[in-house]
Design a protein that fits this description.
Elements (H helix, E strand, L loop, with lengths): L9 H7 L12 E8 L7 H14 L4 E5 L7 H4 L17 E3 L2 E5 L14 H13 L6 E7 L6 H9 L4 E6 L3 H16 L4 E12 L5 E2 L6 H8 L4 E7 L1 H9 L3 H4 L4 H17 L3
Parallel strand pairs: 1-5, 1-6, 2-4, 2-5, 6-7, 7-9
Antiparallel strand pairs: 3-4, 7-8
Bound molecules: adenosine-5'-diphosphate (ADP) and magnesium ion.
């Protein structure tokens, strides 16, 4: 009999064994919460900005890190047009807007310049933003993640202490597939999933009728299936879109708006997980 065995050699096995990563907290911050979805255009940035402002509205010190290197939204959504300063040539000072400390790759490049970067450069940009930004005494830093399950997600999951992730999705089938992939990725990387948000859940017309444009109940179903918390539904609302485009998110502009109230409710659920009173 042939004694040849298949498989990989011992030294090679050693190289492929899972690595132990040291996860460092972002300096100057207590808790890091990532807002993620495996799909683009489902409302991550809109939610992240409003969530950060909702945390601020309940008296917390908050920062937002826009980690969407290829498609930064923060400069437009928070209406920031100037560049951050570096006082000692080492650390970047975050830009304060509406009482929130902000940082985005979009501050450093022209609005219409495409970021044509390979993975290692994305990783290094994220490391700069988490290690070289002078975040000042924050209770929470909200990280607006890029879509997908790529380099940025891996860098955060393996090298940074992320205290929890909120997954956001629209309820349509094609988005839900990505949600499942996202859940599995964070579970695998041992990043706690705080819960799922159903965005663009329905549209309510002037006569009060609800239209489930992207389908109904999909995100809640996935949450149940994967035993994750379901945090709430945010309907399609024109004011939410307009205020983002204007650069003053709805929770800041009109905290009593029905949509602001929904986001503040979700925010309180999250806050309770971290700061017990
Ligand atoms: N609930 C909502 N109602 C209306 N418009 C929304 C809602 N959520 C997001 N949008 C809009 O949808 C677009 C995509 O949202 P965005 O937050 O940029 O998504 P992502 O960050 O996931 O790519 C934006 O124009 C935003 O204003
Ligand atoms: Mg975005």
């Amino acid at each position: 009999m042939d004694k040849k065995t298949s498989g990989v050699s011992e030294p090679f096995m050693g190289n492929t064994a899972p690595k132990n990563f040291t996860k460092n907290p972002i300096k100057g911050t207590r808790f890091t919460i990532a807002v993620s979805s495996a799909k683009g255009g489902v409302g991550k940035s809109t939610f992240a900005m409003n969530f950060a402002l909702a945390l601020k509205s309940i008296g917390l010190k908050v920062g937002i890190l826009d980690a969407d290197i290829y498609g930064p939204s923060l400069p437009k959504m928070m209406s920031i047009k100037h560049k951050p300063e570096s006082k000692d040539g080492k650390g970047l000072v975050p830009i304060e807007k509406y009482g929130i400390q902000c940082m985005s790759i979009g501050f450093l490049v022209d609005e219409e310049t495409p970021m044509i970067w390979r993975g290692p450069m994305v990783t290094s940009a994220i490391k700069t933003f988490t290690e070289k930004v002078l975040w000042n005494n924050l209770d929470f830093i909200v990280v607006d993640m890029p879509p997908g399950t790529g380099d940025a997600q891996l860098t955060f999951a393996q090298q940074i202490k992320v205290d929890g992730v909120i997954i956001i999705s629209t309820p349509q089938e094609i988005a839900l597939l990505d949600v499942k992939r996202g859940i599995k990725m964070f579970d695998k990387l041992k990043v706690p999933i705080l819960g799922l948000v159903d965005n663009m859940s329905f549209f309510q017309s002037d006569d009060g009728k609800n239209y489930s444009i992207f389908g109904e109940g999909g995100v809640e179903k996935v949450a149940k299936e994967y035993k994750k918390e379901f945090l709430g539904k945010i309907p399609i609302n024109i004011d939410l879109r307009v205020t983002s485009d204007e650069g003053k998110p709805l929770v800041e502009k009109d905290p009593n708006h029905e949509i602001s109230k929904i986001i503040i409710e979700i925010t309180k659920k999250i806050e309770k997980l971290f700061l017990k009173k």
